[in-house]
Amino acid sequence: MGQLARTGPDQSLPFSDRDFEALAALAHREFGLSLSQSKKPLVYSRLSRRLKARGIHSFPDYLRILDVPGESSERLELISALTTNVTSFFREDHHFEKLRSDCLSREIEKIRSGKRFRVWSAGCSSGQEPFSIAMEILGSMPDANDYDVKVLATDIDPKIVSKAKSGRYSLEELQSIPDEFRRKWTKNCNDGMGEFQVLDAVRDLVTFGELNLMSDWPFSGPFDSIFCRNVAIYFDQKTQQKLWVKLSKILAERGFLFIGHSERVSGDAVNVLTGVGVTSYQKSTLFDPKNN
After folding, report:
1. What domains can you pick out in the chain, each with its CATH number?
2. Which one is catalytic: 19, 46, 168, 203?
3. What is the tally of helices (H) and strands (E) in the chain?
4. Which end of the chain, N or C, is more open, meaning fewer C-beta atoms within 10 Å of its C-beta?
5. pLDDT at position 81
6. pLDDT band for position 286 (50/70/90)?
7. Measuring CA to CA, which residue among 204, 186, 218, 220 is closest to residue 147?
């Protein structure tokens, strides 16, 4: 997940404080988003476009549609409208260095002896993060595809997951990939679109799926590393702390959690997650708190 979208105002539809409060409550209930009153112009700007696209003439009518059981896809359009997926390959490269030096290095021989190895990109956006993880794994273990090694990549937005699955990016987007990796793991599509394709060896390591982090998770780990970056910053403190606990519970012993540069682990999870670098944490003890 990226940042709350920022666009200019459009005042052609009435938008009362009550409308905003109802939308903010729904966004928090369904997706964990925390929308303060100061975000009202932002919310109006993005959602007024959505109303026009649906031919809806008022925010109360839109709120009624969001409550219809068959309109789950519109609720996803809502989260897509409220967020912007800001990401890049090898963003915050110190996390990838730690993945390589502190996590992969100790596991390679175990993997070749039959151990499973799992990394989760939670809030994978358009795929640059999980593909960066896969490239880092292949850089340390070129035969990773021959073993039980997988990167799980999830995001709440089905449109952005679909884009991620394609593995297609512009030349500009590829510039943050280290030269060696870019030469080895990408190719020009040569279709006149100016796009490049991430090669199958990288894509085969990654499994994409749609997931709302506020819902029940259909897996229990354990994960050797979890990247959950620039997601929790949009939740209130209570929701953040619940998320840290849930992530802690599915981390393998001595597994790593990597979070965004503006985020900090707090609450019960500090009893098990130890800071081991800039926005990097390691699971230090068994963790089974009474409160989820």
Report:
1. 15-83 (1.10.155.10), 93-283 (3.40.50.150)
2. 46
3. 12, 12
4. C
5. 81
6. low
7. 204
CA angle, 242 as apex, 238 and 243 as ends, to 5°? Answer: 115
**Which amino acid, residue 231?**
V
Q: CB of 248 within 8 A of CB of 280?
A: no
Token digits for 52? Answer: 């026009």
3-state DSSP assignment of residue 133: helix
Whether 100 is catalytic: no
Distance CA 203, CA 221 (A): 21
The amino acid occupying position 220 is S
Q: Residues 269, 282: contact at Cβ < 8 Å?
A: no
Least confident of 38-42, 104-108, 235-239: 38-42
CA separation for the pair 105, 76 (Å, rounded): 39
Q: What is the pLDDT of residues 59-114, one digit of tens each?
A: 999 999 988 888 888 888 888 888 766 789 999 999 999 999 999 999 999 999 99
Helix (H, G, I), strand (E, B) or coil at 9: coil
Look up the pTM and report it: 0.84
- The reply to whether 49 belongs to the active site is no
Q: Which two tokens stand for residue 3?
A: 């940042």
Q: Which of the residues 91, 118, 155, 224 is marked catalytic?
A: 155
Rounded CA-CA distance 185/200 in Å is 8
How far apart CA 138 and CA 186 sit, in angstroms, is 13
- pLDDT of 33 > 60? The answer is yes
Number of CB atoms found within 10 A of residue 151's CB: 27
Contacts of 146 (CB under 8 A, 6+ apart): none
CA angle at residue 259 from 77 to 23, to 5 degrees? 30
The single-letter code of the amino acid at 59 is F
